[in-house]
């Protein structure tokens, strides 16, 4: 048994459509969770699904100040309901991968001297050289991807260095585009963060390091040395290493929470596919998950041969029946997951089990389709905020990692996943 000797661990997650918070106690029980939906809670930013789709239908961004203001709202909500921040002994986070935040020159000084009597979004309104942050849905950097691959010696060589060929959404290619298309703003940038390290920077009152795991999704990190690849940096932007800072292990304790949060909220001074489903739900089920689930129950396995491939940034031709379209979407998404798993080398054989996480894992009818597609039983944990929970576990592990305690030892007392559905007998066909 690992004795952690702590009260609560807090996790803040910046996702595409919302900001989430979750707190666990020393027994890994969830003691608080809440969220702020960007579209509904912050309509002044005029986002749809938390993003802005630009006229070229390739460029997709999110307002960085929307994320900051959402944090203000979320922490204020927690304070109003009596959440005792002084119980929090460790804090971790997660963020949508690949997104980038561009801090203006002088922002580090602002972060270090925040007035606890004012909201963060007011204090930081002039701290970003780029107000619309590129996010993972962006696919506008094909030219930069080709240049990067050509510079390093081809797609295979890039994959050997960074673990992946060039993808439009990856941060390095987004940075290259930013330097080329918005040179004035780029020259006024003193630091570039990922969404995850941006959120950590807010709590630190200084720039947080990018961790190895998130850094591996940038086409910039040499995964063999866990340092920035010189040839990739040179192909992207001059002096980029200075803008990124040194990457750190994911288990690193970055430092204490800043005085701003101690004085404003009472933290103690102690040293990480749903958009499309929601769109089809709105179009075909009147915005109701109950009607959406009924459509899945009322349509046959295999959907009479109808499979949906949905590209939300371009025009599509709709299937006639709403219920057919619902099943086409869900079966199509899970068929894609199965194909991807098999290409990675996973064998779907008798005895295979599927562990479902994420918001959709609370919908039994969606899980039934998943089970049928994989012809395997599906298990879930008793919480749909699994990314939040995992990062809360990471925060707890951070308290004892330096003493050699493994992550497994910290989380082994967590509840086992529970069986939710088994495949229908005819699924094997």
From TrEMBL:
<feature type="signal peptide">
    <location>
        <begin position="1"/>
        <end position="23"/>
    </location>
</feature>
<dbReference type="InterPro" id="IPR018485">
    <property type="entry name" value="FGGY_C"/>
</dbReference>
<keyword id="KW-0119">Carbohydrate metabolism</keyword>
<keyword id="KW-0732">Signal</keyword>
<keyword id="KW-0808">Transferase</keyword>
<dbReference type="Pfam" id="PF02782">
    <property type="entry name" value="FGGY_C"/>
</dbReference>
<dbReference type="GO" id="GO:0042732">
    <property type="term" value="P:D-xylose metabolic process"/>
</dbReference>
<dbReference type="GO" id="GO:0004856">
    <property type="term" value="F:D-xylulokinase activity"/>
</dbReference>
<dbReference type="InterPro" id="IPR043129">
    <property type="entry name" value="ATPase_NBD"/>
</dbReference>
<dbReference type="GO" id="GO:0005524">
    <property type="term" value="F:ATP binding"/>
</dbReference>
<keyword id="KW-0547">Nucleotide-binding</keyword>
<comment type="similarity">
    <text>Belongs to the FGGY kinase family.</text>
</comment>
<comment type="function">
    <text>Phosphorylates D-xylulose to produce D-xylulose 5-phosphate, a molecule that may play an important role in the regulation of glucose metabolism and lipogenesis.</text>
</comment>
<keyword id="KW-0859">Xylose metabolism</keyword>
<protein>
    <recommendedName>
        <fullName>Xylulose kinase</fullName>
        <ecNumber>2.7.1.17</ecNumber>
    </recommendedName>
</protein>
<dbReference type="GO" id="GO:0005829">
    <property type="term" value="C:cytosol"/>
</dbReference>
<dbReference type="GO" id="GO:0005997">
    <property type="term" value="P:xylulose metabolic process"/>
</dbReference>
<keyword id="KW-0067">ATP-binding</keyword>
<dbReference type="InterPro" id="IPR042024">
    <property type="entry name" value="D-XK_euk"/>
</dbReference>
<keyword id="KW-0418">Kinase</keyword>
<feature type="domain" description="Carbohydrate kinase FGGY C-terminal">
    <location>
        <begin position="319"/>
        <end position="397"/>
    </location>
</feature>
């Amino acid at each position: 048994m690992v004795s952690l000797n702590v009260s609560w661990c807090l996790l803040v997650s910046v996702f595409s459509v919302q900001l989430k918070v979750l707190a666990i106690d020393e027994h890994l029980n969830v003691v608080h969770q809440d969220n702020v939906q960007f579209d509904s809670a912050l309509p002044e930013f005029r986002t749809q699904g938390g993003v802005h789709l630009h006229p070229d239908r390739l460029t997709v961004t999110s307002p960085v100040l929307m994320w900051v203001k959402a944090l203000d709202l979320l922490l204020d909500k927690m304070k109003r309901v009596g959440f005792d921040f002084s119980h929090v002994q460790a804090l971790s986070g997660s963020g949508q991968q690949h997104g980038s935040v561009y801090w203006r020159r002088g922002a580090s000084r602002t972060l270090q001297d925040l007035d606890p009597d004012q909201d963060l979004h007011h204090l930081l309104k002039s701290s970003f050289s780029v107000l619309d942050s590129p996010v993972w849905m962006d696919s506008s950097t094909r030219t930069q991807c080709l240049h990067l691959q050509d510079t390093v010696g081809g797609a295979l060589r890039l994959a050997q260095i960074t673990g992946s060929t060039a993808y439009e959404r990856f941060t390095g290619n987004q940075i290259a585009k930013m330097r080329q298309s918005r040179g004035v703003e780029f020259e006024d940038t003193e630091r570039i963060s990922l969404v995850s390290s941006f959120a950590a920077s807010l709590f630190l009152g200084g720039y947080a390091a990018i961790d190895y795991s998130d850094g591996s999704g940038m086409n910039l990190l040499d995964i063999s040395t866990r340092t920035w690849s010189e040839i990739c940096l040179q192909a992207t932007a001059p002096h980029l290493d200075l803008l990124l800072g040194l990457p750190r292990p994911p288990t690193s304790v970055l430092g204490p929470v800043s005085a701003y949060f101690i004085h404003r909220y009472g933290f103690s001074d102690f040293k990480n596919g749903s958009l499309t489903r929601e769109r089809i739900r709105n179009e075909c089920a009147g915005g109701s998950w109950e009607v959406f689930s009924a459509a899945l129950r009322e349509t046959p396995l295999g959907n009479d041969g109808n499979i949906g491939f949905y590209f939300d940034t371009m025009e599509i031709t709709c299937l006639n029946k709403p219920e057919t379209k619902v099943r086409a979407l869900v079966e199509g998404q899970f068929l894609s997951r199965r194909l991807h798993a098999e290409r990675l080398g996973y064998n779907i054989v008798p005895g295979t089990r599927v562990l479902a996480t994420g918001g959709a894992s609370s919908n039994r009818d969606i899980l039934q389709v998943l089970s049928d597609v994989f012809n395997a039983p599906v298990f879930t944990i008793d919480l749909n905020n699994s990314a939040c929970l995992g990062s809360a576990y990471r925060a707890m592990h951070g308290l004892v990692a330096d003493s050699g305690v493994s992550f497994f030892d910290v989380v082994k007392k967590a509840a086992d996943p529970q069986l939710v559905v088994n495949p229908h007998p005819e699924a094997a066909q």
